[in-house]
Amino acid sequence: MREFVEVMIERPTAAAHRMVAEVVKEGDLAVDATAGNGHDTLFLAGLVGESGRVLAFDVQEAAILSTRKRVSDAGVESRVELRHESHGKLLERVGRGGASAVMFNLGYLPGGDHAVTTEVGESSKAVVQGLFALKPGGVMTIVCYTGHPGGAEEAAVVVMGLERILEEGTAGAFALVVGEPSRDKAPFLVVVRKEG
User: Fold this and answer.
1) Helix (H, G, I), strand (E, B) or coil at 9
2) CA-to-CA distance for 41 and 14, rounded, in angstroms?
3) Beta-strand runs (E) in the chain
């Protein structure tokens, strides 16, 4: 008799939350580089506690409004700073070694205009800045959505850029893990951990 075991494959967003929760503590600074509808912002606000701070970026007014409502409804707006600007300003706003975690969800705003997406040039720049913004022991998660036009290219450029920078060692010592999509055009997770 053959025994069947059900295998649960963790969603990339759930895996990102799990990995970030292992690192972020009360009083930390954490970054949601793509605020979207505010799910990661709210998650991070819970981790950093009352003495911590979350910096959330988005270029879309609708995303900022949605995130503001979500954190306000949860009563954690005092620990969240919303930035209606590109995540390409990340390092300028955070500083070197200032963040315990940086989270990205590349693609489009769920429920928004699917023609408005993160852009490969700006995302690549922001991910590199995220490396420098991490403090020792910090983690950066990037959920790459490849099912929309330009998504696969953006994901490939971001991963290649990270691999090149990590090989060069210009951003310090890091460990890079790139997840495999479970099916064609499925989202996948990239995780960078800063050693130290």
Assistant:
1) coil
2) 14
3) 29-32, 53-57, 80-83, 99-106, 134-144, 174-178, 188-194
pLDDT in tens, 49-77: 999 999 999 988 999 999 999 999 999 99
Q: How confident is the model at residue 148 (pLDDT cuts 50, 70, 90)?
A: confident
pTM: 0.88
For 21, 59, 162, the CA distances from 130, given in Å and listed in that order, are 18, 17, 11
Cα–Cα distance measured from residue 180 to residue 12, given in angstroms and rounded to the nearest whole number: 10
pLDDT classification of 116: cutoffs 50, 70, 90: low
Q: Which residue has the tokens 């959920």?
A: 143
Of the candidates 75, 52, 72, the one whose C-alpha atom is nearest the C-alpha of residue 64 is: 72
Which residue, among 67, 75, 70, 27, has the nearest Cα to 47 in the 3D structure? 27
Alpha-carbon distance 110 to 117, whole Å?
10
Mean pLDDT of 122-126: 83
